[in-house]
Here is the input.
Amino acid sequence: MQVRIQGRREHYRTVAFDADRNAVLLIDQRVLPHEFKIVAVSDYERTASAISDMTVRGAGAIGATAAYGLAQGVRAFDGAEAAEFESHVASVYETLKNARPTAVDPVNAMNIVRSRMADGASINEKKTLALQAAEEFADEDVAHCRAIGEHGAELIKDGARVLTHCNAGWLAFVDFGTATAPMYVAQERGRAFHVFCDETRPRCQGAALTAWELSEQGISHEVIADNAAGYLMQRGEIDLVIVGADRLIAATGEVANKIGTYTKAVLAARHGIPFYVAIPLSTIDRELSSGSDIRIEERAGDEVLGAWGIDETGRRRYVRIAAPESGARNPGFDITPPELISGIITPHGIWDVNG
Here is the structure.
């Protein structure tokens, strides 16, 4: 998507790769919306850390980052023994896999890379194939997101008031996004609509990232407190909910997404409001049999007990907002059952998970 830099609009991808430096290039999402910064991550362990500390976040973006990180680790191997190489690949894979365990995109992305590597007859060929596969995964992510937008745009009518939760925009993918993709296509088609962005505590990705994206794109929007959604629904001020997902269980239709998604789905059902989930195919988990088997990430309590922001001097600071002696519970995701989902917006159309 386009970003305004010193008065000029320039195109950026959330994740890219510098082959000359063997570095993964990431938009640092921790400092947005106050600063736009590209960081070059120099080795696969730092790439895994960038996923863990949420320098990069979002299902598709961390999938592409993991794919590039695997290629990065493979390319850094300087030995000649096949057994040592395979052991190194397995170690890189596990390090990146464990960086953020709830999302399935990194595993699916790296499995694609490893499958392509198997066609190489030598270590050097495998290195070349690894990077090719990672690049293709990133390109496919963009194409899938654009297709999601084409299908989902039909849901957004003139004058619609749309609620979204967290950030499933282009920052959460390589480009274009999932939950925001229908909005971008609807805008291209000349439709006027308004978006309510849940702030999405505790990390406030809705307020910091989705609102920034929509502002850059010139889409009408407002940030709301997470607990304001029910009030607006009760007053008839929300017509449609579109969210993203970090994992969809193929066997059951259950969806794992940012904490608070389940709450919005329950509220939408109570008020008869359509609730859609937008995903690329890489978010589908065909292995697990139940949402209860998903490992839900428990993050640091400091995220709940305080908040990051910019002070009057322009310095980024953390401020404690909770009582000094209080602890916190901080699950990062929740599970939404299929009966609360109106449909899944995919690159191949809108699926009915209850059909």
About this structure: The chain has two domains: 2-146, 151-351. The mean pLDDT is 95.
